[in-house]
Amino acid sequence: MELNLARDAKNNKGFSRYAIQKRKVKESVTPAMSKTGKLITTDEEKAGVLNKAFASVFTGNLSSHTS
Prior knowledge:
By secondary structure, the protein is mainly alpha-helical. It is 49% helix and 6% strand. It contains 3 helices and 2 strands; from the N terminus they run ααββα. The protein has helices spanning 2-7, 12-23, 43-57; strands at residues 32-33, 39-40. Strands 1-2 form a two-stranded antiparallel sheet. The mean pLDDT is 76.
């Protein structure tokens, strides 16, 4: 689609529509579930749960197998 927009540079309407679509941002993160099964709804709690999940993946400890 991007290549077609670039080829048809005279079609400003198509490019504008594409640019507006790409600028749309989702406003919120859906509720999450903690490890204990508690429903997380506040932004601060969601940030904490996501932080713990990412921190558990990106630690300096190496696992017994390699990917």
